[in-house]
Amino acid sequence: MALSGVLGALDFSSSRAASEEEPLAVATEQLQSAPLLPDPHMRCPGFEKHVKMVHGTTTLAFKYQGGVVVAVDSRASAGAYIASQTVKKVIEINPFLLGTMAGGAADCSFWERYLGMRCRMFELNHKQRISVAAASKILSNITYQYKNYGLSMGTMICGWDQTGPQIYYVDSDGERLHGSLFSVGSGSTFAYGVLDTGYRYDLTFDEAVALGQRSIFAATYRDAYSGGTIRVYHIDKDGWTRISETDSMELYHASTSS
Known about the structure:
Elements: H1 2-9, H2 14-19, H3 28-31, H4 40-43, E1 59-64, E2 67-72, E3 76-78, E4 81-84, E5 90-94, E6 97-100, H5 105-126, H6 132-145, E7 154-161, E8 164-171, E9 176-178, E10 181-184, H7 188-198, H8 205-222, E11 229-236, E12 239-247, H9 248-257
Antiparallel strand pairs: 1-2, 1-10, 2-11, 3-4, 5-6, 6-7, 7-8, 8-9, 11-12
């Protein structure tokens, strides 16, 4: 019996193929791109009453005549508890694309790294670099599918493509906005105060970098959930460059001593 079973398995003749039953049909629902994770409303009744960790951060990005400036802090908080002072809130998607993190660190980090994979697959399939608009649309479609599943994301997709410098805001509700200046996070109101005062399109490179750094510092000074290291990136036609990483306390002491 064992030998006949083996020989039967090795029979690839047309008669055997014709005698076999038709394969089971795959349910249409399984072919759709809906989220595969369970809805917390169904699997975890009363989940909205569980401990809620308040997120805090400050990130910003703006366009000017020389490209895009991206600036972030590095503090991760869970309510009143400061979990880390060294979080890297800029995700380097590819040499011409950057993403920022605001909200849940795990959500932003996972999905923006997944976006990096999707962007690379696009390059391999189409033999050209993906546009900032297309990359942001991919992320927006993903977050919209997971709407009301508990994601916490407020990201900016920044980069340089064939149309020049571009910035898109994408959040966990699937919202996607195109603009020239954004600030996201609990300290964004303080950052906007500095940006609205000092921003203009014809800034020089040094002025733009200083404005981004100064705006994040203002947020770290006034917002308890922002702090740590202030990182500044610059994007131009040659890709992104990390400009500086400065401890916010150094900037504080420099501002008070002058």
